[in-house]
């Protein structure tokens, strides 16, 4: 049914496009402050190695992708991964489980968006207090009233080997009172080959997305917007299991937004947002449903934009209620259910494994069903300090209640009270964060601008960091959570400098993060140095631990621009990123991104654009105890685009090559780096029609 609706949406756009007579609005690119890196998605896609969110952001300074293959790629920002990065879709939290495990894809389709922003420092605290900041994905559902009349886009591309095809269609109509939008995306990619010519089994991907929106402006001061996004991803997991491991992920979102511009001069805008999300994914092995993950979430937010004296800012109050449910039972996870109780003692099997191995192994449902109620209040404000400087302040507080319910766990695998009577107790806790920023604005009188921010952040541990106790089929690992984790605290210092002249530009960024009670997964070993393995699948065992930690790193980028000419424009750029992450005792943290250097050339002539880049990723040398190294590799990419102006419409034809020299490459951030190396040479061609 979903494929039929998508096909209808794509077909609808074609005849309507021929009647489109609206003039394309010009795009003005400005340099945002360092705490808000705002990038056009189409531009990001020209350099992206794949269609994942991490792939779109991978070439930004101090950003990496914890990816394997075509399907999975969560961004890692300044060494921060997982729950230390909040991902938003049009200001609503993406209700998925991608931070829980590296095999879970982010439940977004970035190529269907319009802009992707990276927020850090005070700006990020409006939405969350995360050391890695906020990734904010925005598309036409955020505001279809941007221009009156018809506007839209049809974009598609093909790849020969391994074969893939993508089609993205968007159509929007609006006037002063009404707005309508329909969009559809489909993606299909076959299993790829590594740089050694080996076919990587179960690395295929299929994605479908539908978006619908309706907007109404009853007057000049108010606006209503109703929208929905339906996303489905089906992909394989290239692990070592003899039977195919697959994940089918579905996300349904419904959103109602109200915007009002009031009369008081100090209150600029009122935003009210109500959002419902239903996320579900199953994990199959050999066609059997061995795992099922689901999360339903209701969110509501009130956001005020205001100005007072020299200050301007935003205040946001939000509340969310989510229910996370998990099933793990070989071939029996067609639905969620409550486990029967016979009256026998709870946790007999866990006690037996404690006696035999010293560890509370479980082969039942790996965690309790958990309800989470979260209230957040935040305020971000800034003001000028003279003509050259601005100061900004961000405050964020949250209160959370977690209610774990172990009735979904089979009685023999429930954590026994004699080991920990408070294991499933309700948790009520709060966290407070503050950030202060100072920046010097870029002015014509000086080529130097800079920004400093100092943040003291608190992060509450996630549900799975607390309660997970079980095997994960896709990553072939057994993970122990820790039910009494402390709040993670960090002191973050970020510094960004930019020096610009007509032909030269330097960008330098650095960061130092000091964590107290940093939460991470650490592989388990015996006293003799042998890797621990669980008794059910003989897979590696990982423990959720806490330790004080330090992160230090930075990036430098240089751009040389040719002198302005009517027809020819050249830009040469060089970039280098480095990161060092260790525990307070000096031991390196696992899966730390290795340093990299890249160089590129961009050339524009009339209606042509050509880019070439070389990225060298160094050998991963800073290893955690018993962690294996990852070899260095070179990654060469080319992009060629011809732009045609067809009256008031535009047609772009492009050709792209990634990993041109077919290098064998492994992503050190991936737990599946050995079974899922990065793809070998890929050449694709496509077209983009904007009207």
From TrEMBL:
Membrane topology label: Multi-pass membrane protein
A GO molecular-function descriptor: siderophore uptake transmembrane transporter activity
Residue ranges of domain TonB-dependent receptor plug in the record: 46-134
Gene3D superfamilies, sorted: TonB-dependent receptor, beta-barrel domain, TonB-dependent receptor, plug domain
Keyword list, A-Z: Cell outer membrane, Membrane, Receptor, Signal, TonB box, Transmembrane, Transmembrane beta strand, Transport
Gene Ontology BP annotations: siderophore transmembrane transport
SUPFAM superfamilies attached to this UniProt entry: Porins (SSF56935)
Biased composition (Polar residues): 28-42
Disordered: region residues: 28-47
UniProt source species: Oceanococcus atlanticus
Family, as annotated: Belongs to the TonB-dependent receptor family.
One CC-aspect GO term: cell outer membrane
Residue stretches making up the TonB-dependent receptor-like beta-barrel domain: 216-660
Secretion signal span: 1-19
Entry protein name: Outer membrane receptor, TonB dependent
Main location class: membrane
Compartments (UniProt record): Cell outer membrane
Superkingdom per UniProt: Bacteria
Cited Pfam families: Plug (PF07715), TonB_dep_Rec_b-barrel (PF00593)
């Amino acid at each position: 049914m979903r494929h039929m609706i998508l096909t209808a949406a794509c077909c609808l756009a074609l005849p309507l496009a021929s009647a489109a007579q609206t003039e394309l609005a010009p795009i003005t690119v400005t340099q945002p402050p360092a705490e808000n890196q705002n990038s056009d998605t189409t531009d990001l896609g020209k350099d992206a190695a794949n269609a994942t969110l991490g792939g779109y952001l991978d070439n930004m300074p101090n950003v990496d992708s914890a990816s394997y293959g075509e399907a999975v790629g969560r961004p890692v920002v300044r060494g921060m991964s997982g729950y230390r990065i909040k991902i938003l879709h049009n200001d609503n939290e993406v209700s998925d489980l991608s931070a829980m495990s590296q095999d879970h894809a982010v439940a977004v389709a970035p190529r269907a968006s319009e802009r992707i922003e990276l927020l850090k420092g005070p700006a990020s605290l409006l939405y969350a207090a995360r050391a890695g900041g906020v990734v904010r994905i925005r598309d036409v559902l955020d505001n279809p009233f941007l221009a009156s009349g018809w506007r839209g886009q049809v974009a598609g591309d093909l790849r020969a080997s391994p074969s893939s095809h993508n089609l993205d269609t968007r159509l929007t109509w609006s006037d002063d009172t009404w707005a309508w939008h329909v969009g559809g995306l489909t993606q299909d990619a076959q299993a790829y080959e590594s740089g050694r010519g080996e076919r990587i089994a179960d690395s295929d991907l299929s994605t479908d997305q539908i978006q619908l929106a309706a907007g109404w402006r009853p007057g000049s001061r108010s606006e209503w917007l109703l929208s929905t996004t339906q996303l489905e991803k089906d992909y394989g997991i290239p692990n070592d299991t003899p039977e195919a491991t697959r994940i089918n992920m579905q996300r349904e979102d419904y959103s109602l937004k109200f915007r009002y511009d009031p009369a008081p001069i100090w209150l600029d805008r009122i935003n009210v947002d109500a959002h419902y999300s239903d996320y579900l994914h199953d994990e199959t092995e050999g066609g059997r449903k061995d795992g099922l993950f689901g999360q339903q979430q209701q969110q509501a937010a009130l956001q005020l934009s205001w100005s007072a004296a020299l200050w301007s800012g935003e205040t946001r109050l939000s509340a969310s209620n989510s229910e996370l449910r998990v099933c793990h039972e070989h071939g029996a996870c067609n639905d969620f259910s409550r486990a029967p109780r016979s009256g026998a003692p709870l946790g007999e099997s866990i006690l037996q494994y404690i006696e035999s191995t010293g560890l509370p192994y479980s082969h039942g449902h790996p965690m309790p069903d958990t309800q989470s109620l979260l209230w957040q209040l935040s305020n971000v404000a800034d003001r000028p300090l003279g003509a050259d400087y601005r100061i900004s302040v961000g405050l964020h507080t949250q209160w959370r209640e977690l209610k774990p319910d172990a009735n979904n766990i089979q009685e023999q695998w429930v954590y026994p009270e004699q080991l920990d009577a408070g294991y499933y107790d309700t948790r009520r806790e709060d966290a407070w964060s503050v950030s202060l920023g100072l920046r010097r604005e870029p002015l014509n009188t000086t080529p130097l601008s800079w920004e400093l921010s100092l943040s003291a952040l608190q992060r509450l541990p996630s549900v799975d960091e607390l309660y997970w106790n079980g095997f994960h089929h896709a990553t072939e690992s057994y993970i122990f959570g820790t039910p009494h984790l402390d709040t993670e605290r960090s002191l973050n210092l970020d510094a960004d400098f930019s020096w610009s002249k007509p032909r030269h530009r330097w960008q330098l960024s650095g960061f130092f993060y000091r964590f107290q009670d940093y939460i991470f997964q650490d592989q388990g070993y015996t006293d003799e140095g042998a890797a621990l393995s669980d008794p059910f699948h003989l897979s590696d065992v990982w423990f959720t631990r806490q330790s004080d930690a330090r992160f230090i790193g930075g990036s430098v980028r240089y751009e040389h621009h040719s002198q302005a000419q009517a027809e020819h424009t050249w830009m040469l750029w060089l970039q280098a990123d480095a990161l060092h992450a260790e525990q307070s005792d000096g031991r390196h943290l696992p899966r730390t991104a290795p340093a990299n250097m890249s160089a590129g050339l961009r050339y524009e002539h009339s209606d042509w654009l050509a880019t070439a880049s070389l990225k060298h990723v160094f050998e991963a040398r800073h290893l955690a105890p018993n962690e294996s190294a990852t070899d260095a590799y070179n990654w060469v990419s080319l992009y060629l685009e011809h732009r045609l102006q067809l009256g008031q419409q535009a047609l772009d034809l492009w050709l792209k090559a990634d990993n041109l020299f077919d290098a064998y490459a492994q992503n050190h951030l991936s737990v599946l780096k050995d079974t899922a190396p990065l793809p070998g040479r890929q050449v694709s061609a496509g077209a983009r029609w904007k009207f």
